[in-house]
Amino acid sequence: MPEELQNEPVFLLIISGLIVISMLIKSGAHSFLRIPPVVGYIVVGAFLHAAEDYWGFLPPGAVTTLDFLAALGVAALLFHVGLKSNIETLTEQLPRASRVWASDVVVSVGLAFVVARLAGLELLPAMFVAAAMSATSVGISIVVWEDTKRLKSRLGQLLIDVAELDDLSAIMLMLIVVAIAPILQEGGEPRAVLSAASGASLQMLLKLAAFAGLCWVLARYAEERFTRWMDRALRPPDRILSIVGVGFGIAALAGILGFSVAVGALFAGVLFSRDPRSVREEASFEPIYALLTPFFFIDVGYALETSSMTQSLVLGLFLFVPAVVGKVLGVGVPVARAFGARAGVLLGASMIPRAEIALLVARTGNRLGPWAVPDALYGGLVCAVGLASIVSPLIVQRLLERWDDASLGEP
Fold first, then answer.
1. What pLDDT was estimated at residue 259?
2. Which of 5, 79, 180, 305 holds its CA 20 to 30 A away from the CA of 122?
3. Are 379 and 311 in contact (CB under 8 A)?
4. Is-contact 332 347, C-beta < 8 A?
5. CB 98 within 8 A of CB 165
6. What is the greatest pairwise CA distance in the chain?
7. How crowded is residue 35: how many other Cβ atoms within 10 Å of its Cβ?
8. Tally of CB atoms within 10 A around 139
9. Is 230:326 a contact under the CB 8 Å cutoff?
10. Per residue of the chain (411 residues), what is the pLDDT tens digit?
11. pTM metric for this prediction
């Protein structure tokens, strides 16, 4: 029997174990441990990586499959958030979200760049650090807000808007840095650097406009007819699976265009949230959501390189400071002016997590070569991302438990 076929039952056993462990964590996290389930999922991923480093028991292709399940998990998570979102509230919040986002990007990027330079990094590695630290993992904090039934509040909807703008701007910054990296490496002139940066920005904006336009056309002319046809032609399980298929397809298209799958999945969920028939199908989506979402957080934990943790931990702790302070100040100050100091602290803490986009930036730079992101810096960024993803949910849950619904704003 080929080795690949022999390994399939082993990996299936591992996946089944992770599913059972995830459900146990979900049921016991609040009752016994008093921590958000996402923290438990991340810790499971870190332990899985440590066990693999020690015993080497994962079959070939297991990591690729885990990454794929993580992509499905983040797509399910953000599609679920989009289905529950109020498009009118999101639109109303957009002007304020844009102001908060602008402050967030300037402070996060500037602080991360300065700290990276103080740590002795060269110009180009420091630019990759700044781009990575500008991102936010919208999925991690949102699960805590969702668990406490606060996501539909005005602050919850503001969080979604700002976090998604963060992801888009982080991807744009990454594309700009990648475009100018070879020119800087070769000591190119400022005019060539500016031209490359402008070209990357224009390309990104054109893709975003095309994607947003496609989503608008689907929402305006196709979504209602599609759901009406499904109501007549398909049974309830088939209807929600058809909606999920379209939603995941839109998420995949966003990934192909260079955006994150998370951004596309959120757009898709909001697209279907316009129609009450689609929202009624949400309950049928819950098992899919519960099955896939933990794999995203497990994959975040698995990204922690436990074998080289000692070498990267010092740099990771150093970078963890701007990862926290940049979001707390960049988001917290403008939000505090509009909603009060407590709201500023809450949203600032909610924006601290980094995951898929920050890791994508770090991985992209590392693949260019050690002149862009050395291995030690890559490990440090992974450590900083992991710490931010664990610490933030713990803080956010404590803050949300002390707030009443009126303090967060009516939905």
1. 77
2. 305
3. yes
4. yes
5. yes
6. 66
7. 18
8. 28
9. no
10. 445 555 678 888 889 999 999 988 888 765 666 677 888 888 898 899 888 888 888 887 788 889 899 889 988 988 888 887 777 777 777 888 899 999 999 999 999 999 999 988 999 999 999 999 998 887 788 888 888 788 888 888 889 889 888 888 888 898 899 888 888 888 777 788 888 888 888 888 898 889 989 888 888 888 778 777 776 766 667 777 888 888 999 999 998 888 778 888 888 888 887 766 665 556 678 888 889 999 988 988 887 765 556 667 888 889 999 999 999 999 999 999 988 888 999 999 999 998 778 888 888 888 888 889 888 888 889 888 888 888 898 899 888 887 765 555 554
11. 0.81
Closest of 307, 318, 294 to residue 387, by C-alpha:
318
The total number of residues shown for the chain amounts to: 411
Give the span between the Cα atoms of 388 and 356, in whole angstroms. 13
- Among 185, 49, 120, 159, residue whose Cα is nearest residue 319: 120
In single-letter form, the type of residue at position 289 comes to: Y
Angle of helix 375-401 relative to helix 123-133, nearest 10 degrees, comes to 20
Report which of 141, 162, 160 is spatially closest to residue 96, judged by C-alpha positions. 162
| Locus of tokens 């519960």 | 290
Question: Which amino acid makes up residue 397?
Answer: Q
What is the Cα–Cα distance from 74 to 294, expressed in whole angstroms?
9
Q: Would you state the structure tokens that stand for residue 384, as one six-digit string?
A: 């900083």
CA distances from residue 357 to 78, 226, 378 in whole angstroms, order as listed:
14, 32, 14
- Spell out the SS3 assignment of the chain: CCHHHHHHHHHHHHHHHHHHHHHHHHHHHHHHHCCCHHHHHHHHHHHHHHHHHHHCCCCCCHHHHHHHHHHHHHHHHHHHHHHHCCHHHHHHHHHHHHHHHHHHHHHHHHHHHHHHHHCCCCHHHHHHHHHHHCCCCHHHHHHHHHHCCCCCCHHHHHHHHHHHHHHHHHHHHHHHHHHHHHHHHCCCCHHHHHHHHHHHHHHHHHHHHHHHHHHHHHHHHHHHHHHHHHHHHCCHHHHHHHHHHHHHHHHHHHHHCCCCHHHHHHHHHHHHHCCHHHHHCHHHHHHHHHHHHHHHHHHHHHCCCHHHHHHHHHHHHHHHHHHHHHHHHHHHHHHHHHHCHHHHHHHHHHCCCCCHHHHHHHHHHHHHCCCCCCHHHHHHHHHHHHHHHHHHHHHHHHHHHCCCHHHHCCC
